[in-house]
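Review the following:
>
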Amino acid sequence: MRCFYFRAYDEAGHKRSGTMEAPDRQAADAALRKNGLRPYFVNDYEAVKKAARAQRKRQRIIVAAGAGATVFALILSGWIVEYAGRERAPNIVEYRETGLVEDSSGIIVAKTKEERDFALEIYNLWEGFYPGMITGLEVRKVLMTICVTRRIHDLPDSELEMMASNTARALQRRFGTSGCTLLIVEGTEAVIEVYYTALPESMRVKSYR
């Protein structure tokens, strides 16, 4: 049995966190749901503690403003659409022009304080599990785009899909939308795309790896 740290919503929509023992992450997730919780992050407790110590030593995230961030937001809004079962990944060549991927680690693009606060929360949660993975992200109420390093390919498919799905759920629940889209990008390639709807609940995951 392993010890897992979790964050979840209870039936009233309140956040809960704690530790539990289970054979693996999938079993921990299933046990939480059986007890009426809706987990959005579950990870090995020792890994979380180690990542938290490393996070305290890292430089605080840079919240970008100005022309570079504006260009990035405009580029994204031009081609990101709701998940529609497409065969090919979106074209992300434009990311090279923004400087986000290579030169501006930690950029956040968000129009409102609420969106920016949520982006910071998601950044810190990912940092707790995978330090240094995120290079930047954009948040809108129905869309979140996360840019990551090539180390994303080291994650097992099941682990990445769970992380992406939980992040999409968190986005929908935070802003109370009918549905939302999450896109994870590495370099000029889309890695995974998630479309989540709440009523009726539906999760569609498309991997481009």
User: Anything to note?
Assistant: Residues 157-175 form the longest helix (19 residues). The helical segments are 25-34, 45-57, 67-79, 95-98, 100-103, 113-129, 157-175. Residues 157 and 202 are 19 Å apart (CA to CA). The longest strand covers residues 189-197.
